[in-house]
Amino acid sequence: MLYLKLILLNIVFIKTMDASLVLDPLVNNNAFDVNLYEEVLDPAECARQIEYILTNDTTLLSQFLDAGVRTPRGMLEGNFVDMGNYFQCLGINKEVRDMSIEGKYCAIEFPLKQDELKWPTLPTLPEIPEIPWPNITWPPTWPSEPLTQKILDEEKLKNYNLFIRGRDNLKLLLGDDPELSLSRVAEGNPLANIRFQLAVCLPKVCSPKTALQIITPSFFGNISINENYCRLKNDKPWVAADTVAIVIFSVIGLLTLLSTSYDLRHSVLLERDPKEASKLYTSFSVYTNSRKFFTFRPNPNALTCLDGIRSIAMIWVIVGHTFSTQLSLPLANPLHMFDFLTSFTSLWITGANITVDTFFVISGLLLVYTVASKLTSINLIKNLHLFYLNRLLRMFPVLATAILLQVSFFNRITDGPFWEPIARNTNNCRQYWWSTLLYVQNLVNARNMCLSHSWYLAIDMQAYILSPLVLFWVLGRSKKSAWIALTAAVLIVITASSIYNFLMEFQSAFIALSRSLEDAMRYYFDYYFHTLPRISPFFVGMLFGYVMHLCKGKTIRLSKVLVVMLWILAGATNFCVFISTYFTMKADWDNQTVDSILNSFMRPAWAASIGWLTFACAKGYGGPINWFLSLHIFKILGRLSYAMYILHYPLIYIIYGTALAPIYFSVEYSIQRFFIDFMVAVIASYLVTVLIDMPFSQLIGMVLGGQSDQKRNDKKKNDDLKRADDVVPRLETDLNKTEVVNSQNGIKS
Predict the structure, then answer these.
(1) H-helix or E-strand containing 199?
(2) In angstroms, rounded to a whole number, what is the distance separating the alpha carbons of residues 91 and 275?
(3) How far is the first Cα of the chain from the last one, in angstroms, to the nearest whole number?
(4) CA–CA separation, 704 and 690 (whole Å)
(5) Structural domain spans, the chain
(6) pLDDT in tens, 411-461
């Protein structure tokens, strides 16, 4: 069990793709300046500066030591990472003699498994005095039991202190007995997978290996040390993406200022009717767009419960990402988080990935529900280009905004010792922005997706592109052909995905302890991000959308027994989907048939339960559930849900990327972080919706099918004149009728 724990912690979180940031010096738009790191290196100057620091400046030496390497805190809890003091290190800057000594922050990796290990006495450099090391009394002998048994015995571990500083910490872990040392790093031993990641603070002219070999050549010359990354002040180069982002957002800001000024002058200062204002001139107005955003017009055909379903699903996604993102960060107690994730009480987190299928259901349902009453099969074929173009342009503003923010502002907004994930996302967006805007990123560059969570948008758009194959028959006059097309589409997709799943033999849990790293990677890239095994909920949603279309404006009578049975079936389906995760992620789970069945049928089953929930709430069988899902607060979150989905994940990474020390995991702390992540996402989404999404949506509507303001005003005037001309004949007719009635009643007019 310990082996599986350490393997999991060593993998980090697979969803973050690679654990390290690969910077290509041939690429000129990296998030970090690769050439800057190479240009500052000077081994001779490094030796000279280190000699000066060690011999002449104790204060400067203490600054480097204080900002640099320490023994990781919480090794008994699975933490093998120390982050030093990032800003203190980069703040070192001293001019002495003819030298400029500046700090450089580096992260080095020390694998516990080494080919050859020698533990010499600390050397004395030829021209540098010996470094004074603290006199620490070590345990006389290594414990007789293997360390794995010690870790399994928590009571013994509490009495055995591993918080020790200095080079002898490695001796303590490996032991003095060479034979015992080799057994502890042999294949199959959990210790063989341990890698210490330590922060070192060096003069910027030094590389970690050069500096360490200068100080202790006989010690560090015999062990393997990997340089993960180094950071310098102002190491984020200015690239073309920064210029493009600033220009575009500056133009939008100027348009917003001018449009809002015009709107306020027209509606507030001059007190004119807002309806008489130019729609074009007020399209970027914060005043008008905010008023529209908080205005809800009643619609008898609206499925109000969908706002609540969409909002709860979005909240659930943010909760899941708040917890899961911590797996990609240094944790002070990762074993505690592991114990939580593998416990029954964490099912509301480990099962959260199924909630994304809720969005697929809603998308397919609304597509049929809204289009079926507006188009016919012939009109769909004739306007197929507008069908696709409207969808692409509708999703473009927010998505393009998120990409622009990621390639520039998100990388510069702040900094921290664990900035690699943000830099990696920035690099991916600078290289593969085009695949995201074309919605093919899950198929073309799944391992390097710009906005790693945007795979959902790609699958949703691909399903939308395929939907006319079914919509053509749904929009026809024959209900029979519509039912055949919808049923056939659902069966074909489920059958094809089932064959694919049974052949590929994927794991079914998000974290499967019984599977290898290779299996986990296959699961994410070939199943979780792939179109075929994820598209079935969309077509199930289309089927329920047609049901809702047929029942629009009608009263549906269902027996109480049937309603209760359907509610029980939907609840039991959801419960089985959740509870299955608890068993399939266990270390002793070994049933590929069940895994394949779950991968093939649990998502369409979940989609069917969401479809029934929507139908029941819309037709009066939801009771208090419908009341709750139809609350007005969910209308606001429903309007923000698209922007929240796009923006929340990069913002979570930025918040966590500023951590200066390993985070101590607890459920209470994670819930507190969720509220922060949620509020930041709401505020950012509101700003993007009002400032960018609504203005561009209005412009797109005007270009694709709207009328100009002049034509609209002329038409309004003509209609008013026509109505005025009709007033006199109507009055004369009414007077004549009145005279006839009065004369018949003997009343003189």
Answers:
(1) strand 195-203
(2) 57
(3) 102
(4) 21
(5) 2-30+33-231, 296-704, 717-744
(6) 999 999 889 889 999 999 999 999 999 999 999 988 899 999 999 999 999
Question: Vertex 644, ends 643 and 650: CA angle to 5°?
Answer: 100
Q: Residue 590's closest CA among 481, 509, 647?
A: 509
Residue 201 pairs in a beta bridge with: 105
Rounded CA separation 185/203 (Å):
33
In this predicted model, what pLDDT tens digit does every residue of 275-308 receive, in sequence order? 888 889 999 999 999 999 998 888 888 899 999 9
Residue for token pair 């209760």: 564
The tokens of 408 are what? 């520039």
What's the DSSP call for residue 345? G
- CB of 119 closer than 8 Å to CB of 138: no
What's this model's pTM, rounded to 2 decimal places? 0.82
- Render the burial of 684-708: b for 16+ CB within 10 Å, e for the rest: bbbebbbbbbbbbbbbbebeeeeee
Closest C-alpha to 690, from 634, 643, 748: 643
Residues whose CB falls within 8 Å of the CB of residue 466, separated by 6 or more in sequence, listed in order: 535
Six-digit token string for 412: 């510069």
For 542, the token pair is: 């289309």
DSSP 90-158: HT-EEEETTEEEEEEEEEEEEES--S----PPPP--SSSPPPP----PPPSS--SS-HHHHHH-HHHHH
DSSP readout, 616-653? HHHTT--THHHHHHT-HHHHHHHHHHHHHHHHHHHHHH
Q: Rounded to the nearest 5°, which phi and psi values hold at 266?
A: -70, -45
Three-state secondary structure string covering 405-465: HHHHHHHHCCCCCCCHHHHHHHHHHHHHHHHHHCCCHHHHCHHHCCCHHHHHHHHHHHHHH
User: Rounded to whole angstroms, how far apart are CA atoms 80 and 87?
Assistant: 21
pLDDT digits (tens, 9 = 90+) for 622-651: 999 999 999 989 999 999 999 999 999 999
Q: d(Cα 485, Cα 498) in Å, to the nearest integer?
A: 20
Letter string b/e over residues 53-81, b meaning 16 or more CB atoms within 10 A of that residue's CB:
bbeeeeebbebbeebbbeebbbbbbbbbb
Residue from 103, 99, 100 nearest 62 by CA: 103
- The C-alpha atoms of residue 381 and residue 553 are separated, in whole angstroms, by 28
Q: Residue 417 has which token pair?
A: 């010792």
